[in-house]
Design a protein that fits this description.
Length: 261
Amino acid sequence: VAHAEPSSCLRKASAGKSVGLAKANSQTCTPFALEPQKYNFAPLMKLNQISTAIRLIAIPVIAVCLSFTNADARKIPGQVVDRDGNVKEVTLRVPFKFLRSTPDFESLQARIVYFDASGQRIVLRPDDAREISFVFKGQEVRMLSVLNTIGAGAPMFGRNKNIFLHLKVDGKLKLFNYYETQTTGGGVVNGVPMQNEYTQDYDVLQLADQEPMQPRGLSFRKDMMEYLADCPIVTNLIESRDLKRRDTELIVMMYNDKCGD
Protein backbone atom coordinates (compact mmCIF):
# COMPACT_ATOMS: atom_id res chain seq x y z
CA VAL A 1 0.00 0.00 0.00
CA ALA A 2 2.89 2.33 0.74
CA HIS A 3 4.04 2.10 -2.88
CA ALA A 4 0.58 2.48 -4.42
CA GLU A 5 0.45 6.26 -4.09
CA PRO A 6 3.59 7.05 -6.12
CA SER A 7 2.45 4.64 -8.82
CA SER A 8 -0.97 6.33 -8.89
CA CYS A 9 0.62 9.77 -9.03
CA LEU A 10 2.79 8.76 -11.99
CA ARG A 11 -0.25 7.54 -13.84
CA LYS A 12 -2.13 10.76 -13.10
CA ALA A 13 0.83 12.92 -14.06
CA SER A 14 1.28 11.02 -17.28
CA ALA A 15 -2.40 11.34 -18.07
CA GLY A 16 -2.28 15.04 -17.20
CA LYS A 17 0.62 15.61 -19.60
CA SER A 18 -1.26 13.97 -22.44
CA VAL A 19 -4.07 16.53 -22.17
CA GLY A 20 -1.75 19.49 -21.63
CA LEU A 21 -2.09 19.80 -17.81
CA ALA A 22 0.83 20.99 -15.68
CA LYS A 23 0.12 18.80 -12.64
CA ALA A 24 -1.97 15.71 -11.90
CA ASN A 25 -2.89 16.78 -8.38
CA SER A 26 -1.15 19.49 -6.38
CA GLN A 27 -1.87 17.84 -2.98
CA THR A 28 -1.11 14.17 -3.53
CA CYS A 29 1.24 14.23 -6.50
CA THR A 30 3.56 17.18 -5.94
CA PRO A 31 6.74 15.00 -5.83
CA PHE A 32 5.87 13.51 -9.20
CA ALA A 33 4.23 16.54 -10.95
CA LEU A 34 5.54 17.12 -14.51
CA GLU A 35 6.40 20.73 -15.40
CA PRO A 36 7.13 21.61 -19.05
CA GLN A 37 10.70 22.71 -19.87
CA LYS A 38 11.10 26.46 -20.42
CA TYR A 39 13.77 27.59 -22.90
CA ASN A 40 15.00 31.14 -23.53
CA PHE A 41 15.01 31.63 -27.30
CA ALA A 42 15.71 35.39 -27.17
CA PRO A 43 19.49 35.11 -27.89
CA LEU A 44 18.87 32.81 -30.87
CA MET A 45 16.22 35.14 -32.26
CA LYS A 46 18.57 38.11 -32.00
CA LEU A 47 21.32 36.20 -33.80
CA ASN A 48 18.89 35.27 -36.56
CA GLN A 49 17.77 38.88 -36.93
CA ILE A 50 21.38 40.08 -37.11
CA SER A 51 22.22 37.42 -39.71
CA THR A 52 19.23 38.40 -41.84
CA ALA A 53 20.12 42.10 -41.60
CA ILE A 54 23.69 41.39 -42.71
CA ARG A 55 22.43 39.44 -45.74
CA LEU A 56 19.98 42.21 -46.63
CA ILE A 57 22.77 44.77 -46.61
CA ALA A 58 25.74 42.78 -47.88
CA ILE A 59 24.23 41.01 -50.90
CA PRO A 60 22.94 44.16 -52.68
CA VAL A 61 26.16 46.01 -51.88
CA ILE A 62 28.29 43.21 -53.34
CA ALA A 63 26.07 43.02 -56.42
CA VAL A 64 26.35 46.75 -57.04
CA CYS A 65 30.12 46.72 -56.54
CA LEU A 66 30.57 43.86 -58.98
CA SER A 67 28.37 45.47 -61.62
CA PHE A 68 30.16 48.83 -61.50
CA THR A 69 33.70 47.63 -60.81
CA ASN A 70 35.91 46.87 -63.77
CA ALA A 71 37.22 43.75 -62.09
CA ASP A 72 39.43 42.69 -65.00
CA ALA A 73 40.59 45.86 -66.78
CA ARG A 74 43.33 45.07 -69.29
CA LYS A 75 46.01 47.22 -70.86
CA ILE A 76 45.64 47.01 -74.63
CA PRO A 77 47.54 49.01 -77.30
CA GLY A 78 45.24 51.37 -79.17
CA GLN A 79 44.70 54.74 -80.75
CA VAL A 80 43.03 57.98 -79.72
CA VAL A 81 41.89 60.54 -82.30
CA ASP A 82 41.54 63.96 -80.65
CA ARG A 83 39.10 66.71 -81.65
CA ASP A 84 41.60 68.14 -84.14
CA GLY A 85 42.05 64.79 -85.88
CA ASN A 86 45.48 64.02 -84.45
CA VAL A 87 46.13 60.30 -83.93
CA LYS A 88 47.96 59.17 -80.79
CA GLU A 89 49.36 55.72 -80.16
CA VAL A 90 48.50 54.90 -76.55
CA THR A 91 47.91 52.07 -74.11
CA LEU A 92 44.21 51.84 -73.29
CA ARG A 93 42.91 50.50 -69.99
CA VAL A 94 39.96 48.54 -71.35
CA PRO A 95 37.39 47.54 -68.71
CA PHE A 96 35.77 44.11 -68.46
CA LYS A 97 32.81 43.28 -66.25
CA PHE A 98 33.16 40.64 -63.55
CA LEU A 99 33.49 37.15 -65.08
CA ARG A 100 32.90 38.48 -68.62
CA SER A 101 35.13 37.71 -71.61
CA THR A 102 34.26 40.79 -73.70
CA PRO A 103 35.00 44.48 -73.08
CA ASP A 104 32.56 46.47 -70.98
CA PHE A 105 31.24 48.61 -73.83
CA GLU A 106 28.69 50.23 -71.54
CA SER A 107 31.46 51.76 -69.41
CA LEU A 108 33.45 52.74 -72.49
CA GLN A 109 30.51 54.85 -73.65
CA ALA A 110 31.20 57.36 -70.88
CA ARG A 111 35.00 57.41 -70.59
CA ILE A 112 38.23 55.51 -70.97
CA VAL A 113 41.58 55.65 -69.22
CA TYR A 114 44.77 55.54 -71.27
CA PHE A 115 48.51 55.93 -70.77
CA ASP A 116 50.50 58.10 -73.17
CA ALA A 117 54.08 57.53 -74.37
CA SER A 118 55.50 58.96 -71.13
CA GLY A 119 53.31 56.69 -68.99
CA GLN A 120 51.03 59.48 -67.81
CA ARG A 121 47.52 58.33 -66.88
CA ILE A 122 44.78 60.29 -68.70
CA VAL A 123 40.99 60.06 -68.45
CA LEU A 124 39.38 60.63 -71.83
CA ARG A 125 35.71 61.58 -72.19
CA PRO A 126 33.57 61.68 -75.34
CA ASP A 127 33.65 65.49 -75.57
CA ASP A 128 37.47 65.40 -75.74
CA ALA A 129 38.00 63.04 -78.71
CA ARG A 130 36.62 61.90 -82.04
CA GLU A 131 37.38 58.23 -81.67
CA ILE A 132 39.15 55.50 -79.72
CA SER A 133 40.09 52.16 -81.24
CA PHE A 134 41.87 48.91 -80.38
CA VAL A 135 42.11 45.31 -81.57
CA PHE A 136 40.44 42.58 -79.52
CA LYS A 137 40.62 38.91 -80.53
CA GLY A 138 41.68 39.90 -84.04
CA GLN A 139 38.77 42.30 -84.55
CA GLU A 140 39.08 46.09 -84.67
CA VAL A 141 36.93 47.85 -82.10
CA ARG A 142 36.04 51.47 -82.84
CA MET A 143 34.17 53.75 -80.44
CA LEU A 144 33.14 57.03 -82.11
CA SER A 145 32.16 60.18 -80.27
CA VAL A 146 28.68 61.25 -81.39
CA LEU A 147 26.09 63.68 -80.10
CA ASN A 148 24.07 62.12 -77.29
CA THR A 149 20.56 62.46 -78.70
CA ILE A 150 19.36 59.07 -77.47
CA GLY A 151 18.92 60.03 -73.83
CA ALA A 152 21.79 57.99 -72.41
CA GLY A 153 21.96 58.02 -68.59
CA ALA A 154 22.78 61.47 -67.23
CA PRO A 155 24.55 60.34 -64.01
CA MET A 156 27.09 58.34 -65.98
CA PHE A 157 27.75 60.94 -68.68
CA GLY A 158 27.55 64.04 -66.50
CA ARG A 159 28.01 67.22 -68.51
CA ASN A 160 29.22 65.45 -71.63
CA LYS A 161 27.21 66.36 -74.71
CA ASN A 162 28.64 63.40 -76.60
CA ILE A 163 28.79 59.66 -76.07
CA PHE A 164 31.19 56.99 -77.35
CA LEU A 165 29.22 54.47 -79.43
CA HIS A 166 30.46 51.11 -80.70
CA LEU A 167 30.67 51.25 -84.50
CA LYS A 168 29.30 48.13 -86.22
CA VAL A 169 28.95 49.27 -89.87
CA ASP A 170 30.82 52.22 -91.39
CA GLY A 171 29.80 54.34 -94.37
CA LYS A 172 27.61 57.32 -95.21
CA LEU A 173 25.04 55.63 -92.98
CA LYS A 174 26.68 54.31 -89.82
CA LEU A 175 25.29 51.64 -87.53
CA PHE A 176 26.23 51.78 -83.85
CA ASN A 177 25.39 49.72 -80.79
CA TYR A 178 24.33 51.42 -77.58
CA TYR A 179 24.62 49.28 -74.42
CA GLU A 180 22.52 49.43 -71.27
CA THR A 181 22.25 47.21 -68.19
CA GLN A 182 18.81 45.72 -67.54
CA THR A 183 17.59 43.96 -64.40
CA THR A 184 14.96 41.28 -63.88
CA GLY A 185 13.52 39.71 -60.75
CA GLY A 186 15.52 36.72 -59.60
CA GLY A 187 13.30 35.43 -56.81
CA VAL A 188 14.02 35.40 -53.09
CA VAL A 189 16.97 33.61 -51.42
CA ASN A 190 16.92 33.26 -47.61
CA GLY A 191 14.41 36.08 -47.42
CA VAL A 192 16.56 38.38 -49.57
CA PRO A 193 15.16 39.61 -52.93
CA MET A 194 17.63 38.87 -55.75
CA GLN A 195 18.00 40.41 -59.21
CA ASN A 196 19.46 39.15 -62.46
CA GLU A 197 21.45 41.56 -64.61
CA TYR A 198 22.17 41.46 -68.32
CA THR A 199 23.43 43.92 -70.92
CA GLN A 200 21.07 44.88 -73.73
CA ASP A 201 22.34 46.44 -76.96
CA TYR A 202 20.29 48.82 -79.11
CA ASP A 203 20.78 49.94 -82.70
CA VAL A 204 21.62 53.60 -83.36
CA LEU A 205 21.92 55.00 -86.88
CA GLN A 206 23.64 58.16 -88.10
CA LEU A 207 23.76 59.72 -91.54
CA ALA A 208 26.78 61.87 -92.33
CA ASP A 209 24.83 65.13 -92.21
CA GLN A 210 22.27 64.28 -89.52
CA GLU A 211 22.01 63.62 -85.79
CA PRO A 212 22.01 60.01 -84.51
CA MET A 213 18.66 58.25 -84.49
CA GLN A 214 17.51 55.26 -82.46
CA PRO A 215 14.61 53.44 -84.20
CA ARG A 216 11.70 52.85 -81.86
CA GLY A 217 10.16 49.41 -81.66
CA LEU A 218 6.53 50.24 -82.41
CA SER A 219 7.31 52.88 -85.04
CA PHE A 220 10.35 51.27 -86.66
CA ARG A 221 8.99 51.53 -90.23
CA LYS A 222 7.93 55.15 -89.83
CA ASP A 223 11.23 56.20 -88.20
CA MET A 224 13.37 54.45 -90.80
CA MET A 225 11.38 55.70 -93.79
CA GLU A 226 11.66 59.28 -92.55
CA TYR A 227 15.36 59.05 -91.72
CA LEU A 228 16.30 57.31 -95.00
CA ALA A 229 13.90 59.28 -97.22
CA ASP A 230 16.66 60.04 -99.75
CA CYS A 231 16.97 56.34 -100.63
CA PRO A 232 13.61 55.06 -102.00
CA ILE A 233 15.15 51.75 -103.08
CA VAL A 234 15.54 50.93 -99.40
CA THR A 235 12.48 52.68 -97.97
CA ASN A 236 10.17 50.89 -100.43
CA LEU A 237 11.39 47.54 -99.09
CA ILE A 238 10.85 48.77 -95.52
CA GLU A 239 7.35 50.00 -96.34
CA SER A 240 6.42 46.64 -97.93
CA ARG A 241 7.84 44.86 -94.86
CA ASP A 242 10.36 42.99 -96.94
CA LEU A 243 12.95 44.55 -94.62
CA LYS A 244 12.11 44.54 -90.93
CA ARG A 245 13.71 45.52 -87.66
CA ARG A 246 15.72 42.31 -87.50
CA ASP A 247 17.25 43.34 -90.86
CA THR A 248 18.70 46.64 -89.59
CA GLU A 249 22.29 45.73 -90.44
CA LEU A 250 21.23 44.66 -93.94
CA ILE A 251 19.30 47.92 -94.35
CA VAL A 252 22.41 49.94 -93.46
CA MET A 253 24.64 47.99 -95.86
CA MET A 254 22.06 48.24 -98.66
CA TYR A 255 21.71 51.99 -98.15
CA ASN A 256 25.47 52.48 -98.34
CA ASP A 257 25.61 50.32 -101.46
CA LYS A 258 22.71 51.98 -103.32
CA CYS A 259 22.71 55.51 -101.94
CA GLY A 260 26.08 55.96 -100.24
CA ASP A 261 27.77 58.01 -102.99
